[in-house]
Structures are given as C-alpha cells and as structure tokens.
Design brief:
about 375 residues; alpha/beta; 6-stranded mixed sheet; globular
C-alpha cells in the first residue's frame, strides 16, 4: 500500500569531551516555580534519566546536557560536521544542523499518501507502536512511508514522561522522510506554545526535576540557541496538504469573513508567539490569534459535544472551506475515543486520546479514500457524523 524506503544510515559519532558536573555556568537561572503543586511528586521520583538538551555556544560548539540517574552529565562537541550524534547513558540524539530554517511554504500538493494524527503528550512508547504497526516507520524506527506526507497537529509536550524522546525522534525522522521524497509536517499545538512561554501547568514531575537539576527554568531548555528550540520555532501553526487544511485547534469562521490568508494567519501568530522574545505585549489581531478563538485553542467544531453554545454552524464550515479552497478541516486538541468526523465529514477530529496511554489511531488518505489505522494496524472505516 505504501512505498517502503531504505533504512537510513546511522549517524556517526564524533570526538567529544565528557565532563561530569552537577551544574554548568550556562545554567545560571533558578528553576521555574509556577508548578509548585507538582514539586512533592517530583521529590518522590526515582532518579531521573532525561536528555539530551543541546545548545550552540558562542564558539559554535555543541553543549549537551543529560540527567543520568539524577546526576548531570555534560558533553562538549567541538566539531560541527553534520550529521552527527551525541550520546550518553543510552540517550542518543542525531543532530543535522546548528539551527533550523523555517520553511515558509504552507501548501503542499501531490499524488502521495497522507497520514495524520495529533496529541502525543509524551507517550513515546505508544507512539512508536502505532507508527510501526501502521507502516509509518519500520521495526528499527526508521521512515517507511516512502513519498508519503505525515502530518502531526501538535501537542508533543506535557502530561507524559517521554517528551524528550519524541522530540528527538521526530526531529531525525523528518530528515529521513525528506531524503526519501516524503515529508513530515508538525504544526504547533497549544502545549508547545505554553511551554515555550513558561506556562508549565501540565508538566510531568520528571521535567520539574530536570529543570531543578539543570538549574534552569524548563522553558529555557528550549531557547533559540538550542537545537530543539530552534526546530520548534521553525514550525508553522497550520498547513494545507492537497484538499485538506490542518491545525491543532481549528479555524474560527471570522478568518473567512475577514478574508484572512493562510500566510497572514501563520505569520502574525508566529511573530507574536513567545512573549519573552517580543519588544512589546501582543495586541490587536496578534493577541486574538493566541486566545480562545485562535488556531491552537479553538474548539468551536465540538461545542455541541461539550454542551456549549456558540459553535460553528454548517454554513460557517462551508464558508471556511470555500475561503481556504479545501474540502476538509482536520484538527486535534479536542479528544475523542477514536478518529471521528463532524459536519458530514467536512471536519475530521484526529485527537484519538493517545494522551491516556492506552490507544491511538492514524488517519490515512490515499487515492481519494480515507480510513483509520488502529493501534494494531487494522484498517477501520471512517464514519461521518
């Protein structure tokens, strides 16, 4: 059904200097305290293994930090010939560049299969099982979807305890996909934006401990000069693939009535994304995009399910589809028991509650047909509601 690709060559490690330390001079800020209600849980944790958190220093070297059984391990990589890998305590990471360049292209079209899902929330093992059984990756966790395009509508962060593993996995898998002629489109979710802004309400206690031991607020582990922080900042808040428009939360009908373009929405959202990096507070439409009716928070397609008034009407859905020239709006954010549709199939909800750690599904679109891939890889029909 899908085109299998060759297993990507393992990245080779380069010379590095290993230094054991309990802290580093680059980690001089106090840990974040806005999740104090979780500190007791963090104190009760077994010794934490986490990382790496990789930064580019002023000498254009890579400074990597791990927690190994609760102790801090640092590694400085002096050479920067890419690709390369860093590894300690059986926690490797493949690194492809000192920084990630934002791809401003938001629309993609072609005769290839498309797969989509949302809201991993730190559930790395379940994610691997789901992707393997549905032939997105092979048994060695390498790209197996050929020239297919794989869309993830955000929410890697929070709740679960294997966020770091997912981030590095997708960072590398994206490179593999592009080399095979395919692609991965990660759109930002509300939890990515929350963490980058220091809103850590849903952070797993493990990462409170990480921040404490590295002596740095958790959001500062994803600054612009970090490999993953730069990569996250390169991601859009929406993407259009063939006749489908994807975002984490959704598109408020006002975006159509006000004739907003995809580029305008994405640009204004991204330019105002991280408060600490702005010259002045968000205002006007930039502020609007980061509120309830913005693309990472909007739940108006599911208002009836949630017993709330004011959701999008069928007419407004048609207006959105016409304005953006698509046939489907595909979103995560609002959890379902399975992948489901609304508005007679015009809206597809792909948050299948992976965050609960028990089950998950993938939406597949190929040759005009749509179906659900179950956790075991079984092909299931997509029901329209």
């Amino acid at each position: 059904m899908f085109i299998l690709t060759c297993i990507a060559k393992r990245l080779t490690a380069i010379s590095s200097i290993l230094l054991l330390a309990t802290s580093a001079s680059t980690f001089a800020l106090p840990p974040s305290t806005n999740v104090s209600d979780e500190k007791a849980k963090a104190d009760a944790l077994a010794p934490v293994n986490d990382g790496p958190y990789v930064f580019v220093n002023e000498q254009q070297q890579l400074e990597s930090y791990w927690l190994c059984q609760g102790g801090v391990l640092t590694q400085t990589t002096k050479m920067v010939n890419f690709p390369l890998s860093v590894s300690a305590c059986n926690m490797p990471a493949a690194i492809h560049a000192l920084s990630s360049i934002e791809n401003k292209v938001l629309e993609f079209s072609g005769d290839y299969p498309v797969a989509a899902l949302s809201d991993f929330h730190g559930k790395y093992d379940l994610m691997i099982e789901l992707l393997t059984n549905n032939n997105i990756i092979d048994e060695d966790k390498n790209w197996a979807f050929g020239e297919g395009h794989f869309v993830i509508t955000g929410d890697i962060f929070d709740r679960g305890d294997k966020v770091t593993e997912i981030l590095w996995f997708l960072y590398d898998l994206e490179q593999q996909a592009q080399k095979a002629g395919g692609d991965i489109h990660l759109t930002l979710g509300n939890h990515e934006v929350m963490v980058l802004n220091g809103d850590l309400r849903y952070l797993h206690p493990k990462y409170i401990e990480t921040a404490k031991q590295l002596n740095k607020p958790f959001e500062k582990l994803f600054t612009k000069d970090s490999i993953i922080g730069s990569w996250l900042r390169s991601k859009p808040v929406l993407v259009k693939v063939n006749n489908m428009l994807f975002a984490h939360g959704g598109f408020h009908p006002s975006l159509a009535t006000e004739k907003r373009t995809l580029v305008e929405i994405n640009t204004v959202f991204k330019d105002s994304m991280i408060k600490a990096e702005l010259d002045k507070p968000r205002e006007g439409w930039a502020k609007y995009l980061h509120k309830t009716n913005g693309p990472i928070w909007y739940r108006g397609y599911f208002s009836a399910d949630r017993g709330k008034d004011g959701g999008a009407t069928s007419t407004e859905i048609d207006l959105l589809l016409k304005h953006f020239d698509v046939e489907h709006l595909i979103v995560g954010h609002t959890s379902q028991k399975q992948i489901e549709t609304r508005y007679q199939g015009r809206v597809i909800a792909i948050d299948s509650s992976i965050k609960r750690g028990n089950y998950g599904e993938i939406l597949f679109i190929e040759n005009g047909k749509k179906w659900r891939g179950s956790l075991s890889g079984k092909v299931l029909p997509l029901y329209h509601q």
